[in-house]
Hints:
11 helices; 3-stranded mixed beta sheet; 3-stranded antiparallel beta sheet; elongated
Amino acid sequence: MSRLEKIYQALQTLESEGLGLNIEQKAQLREAEEEIIRREILPVLTEKIEPLLNQIERELVLVVDYNPKQPLKVSLSRRRIVFPGAVEIKAESKAKFPSSDNQSTTKDESASKKILCVTMPNGRIIKYPKAKDTFIEVIKEIGVERIRPLEITCCKIPIISNKYDAKYGRAQHPIGDGWLVLTNSSTHNKKRILDYIARRLNIPLRVEMLIPAYTEENLKGKRAMFSLNGSEPLNKRNAVYEVIKKFVEEHPDSTFEDIEIFFPRRLQGGYGVVVLEEEYQYRIAQGQNADGCYFIDKPFTDSRGRKFYVCNQWGYNFTAFQKHIENKLGWVLVEV
């Protein structure tokens, strides 16, 4: 017998004996009922319908009208409706991860910084020197719209959010469309989170923690360098800056809007490839994580005399920028 059945049976026994409940007791009963629905019914219901809904590629609202004395009614709505007097009961999140794990490690294990290597279902291997970049890229590949409903939290805040946290804002990274990914967790916990996502969404991911090859380059911390049309080697951020510089020099009549359209925000993410001085100051005033994210010491000016900056936050998103300038401008930006 389920917990709900026991509650309803006890209620029927009281009523059959002529013992009614007072207002306070009825409120307590309702709270107990909703807690059981939240903890036991909704998670099972979600797991049952999620595989069917995964084939749908747009947002929708399903309205479930349940009356124990009538057939179940499920209807589709094109917009979110708040019914008068309705109480939203959300399934309690079961995926709560700490910022770091408490597993004991040997001295040799803790000294070896591990990286994440993720093999996607299509065979693509995502592996960056920093675990956070791999984590972010995998989240983007799977899709925010699929991961957010899982309500995964780390450090007691959602790993995917559209609002900077007062404490962990610096560990939240833009991934486009206003969404942020929290990376304030150990490599081990990043693997646990990705494993959990794969299990819940039934995605055949292979997530591994690897120790980087012990080479002289790794010991020196050598970074990838790139050449723009045969130029001297540049790191990623400076390579992007030189691209914008070259574009502005060749198109002196361009407005900021022209430049932003040509280098769309999605190439970088939430920071954008370029940003007007006004937007930068607004971000700072709002306490957003913008300080140090742009070349503010090397600004540009558009044809209308407006100052703008180039973003210096480039990692997993650099590949898309390379392909963009090659396709649109015919410029070559290759690793050397």
